Amino acid sequence: MISTHLSVVSLRDLTLVQAVRRHGSFNSAARAMHISPSGLSHQVQKVEQALGTPLFERGGRRIVPTAGGQRLLEQIDAVLVAAEHLQQAARAGEVAFGGELRLGVLATLGPYLLPHLIAPFPQHFPAATLSLSEGKPRGLLRRLHEGELDAVLAPPAPAVSGIAMRPLFFEPWEVMLRADHPLAGRRSVALEQLDAKEATLMTESHADHVLGGGHVQDVSLESLAALVGLRGGYALVPALAHDRLASTPDIALAKIKGQAPGREIALYWREASPWHGDLQAFAELLRKLAKQRPGLKLIETSKPL
Q1: Confidence band (pLDDT; 50, 70, 90) for 59?
Q2: Residue 29's CB: how many other CB atoms inside 10 A?
Q3: How far apart (Å, rounded) are the C-alpha atoms in residues 247 and 251?
Q4: pLDDT of residue 220
Q5: What pLDDT, on the 0 to 100 scale, is given for residue 93?
Q6: Exposed e or buried b for every residue in 284-298, given b needs 16+ CB within 10 A?
């Protein structure tokens, strides 16, 4: 039996507790959850009193869970995920994804892939809407695990319990050069022709360790093009961005000769999702779109997960 004290704790109260852990600050969590800091503190204390133990250590610059609180916070996460699954299961079968697919996409992928997805999505999933969030792989996968997103498009990552992954396609890098670079104007360039000291690389392409040296920037592709335009030299950029970047003044693009480096893209979702069949169909739609884009190569798997 659930105690009287615990029975008055709401799912909203548990969501507020989760926000404090995620932000590490009552003030930051209060702003994110649209509640006053004092109101948030009161609700967290209410949960702690119901559980009979403190969840967080107060007084430091950053709020951190107590030793016992960490274990209970994991259980709170499980309760919130179960509540979301209950809500989704109640709507299952009405329309695909229960009416909305909350998709997380890499910031360096979304603007170049999604224009090809917007038109066919409602044709394949009538009455369902597509809600988009851009970010970095680690943050997107964390939000997927916590139930804020239904699926994520990102490079392959180490296996995580409870998360399914379907490989989709390989996207090669291309070389982006300033228009006055000696290699500008060529259709293709060998990596050996490039001087590593001239490179301005985004974090993703640098992770391949294809080239040493140069500048590593954590910026959008448009900002990367601006940096190449200012500094000269070159950068490695994903092939899907070719059309958009090719229209940038004073910028030239070239393919990489031979076996070009690049990145793999996979679709992730929670194994417990009631939309498993819909997500498999969505993965097939993405693979169909990738097959139609020049340069992309489908990643073959023995069978869907």
Answers
A1: confident
A2: 23
A3: 8
A4: 84
A5: 57
A6: ebbbebbeeeebbee
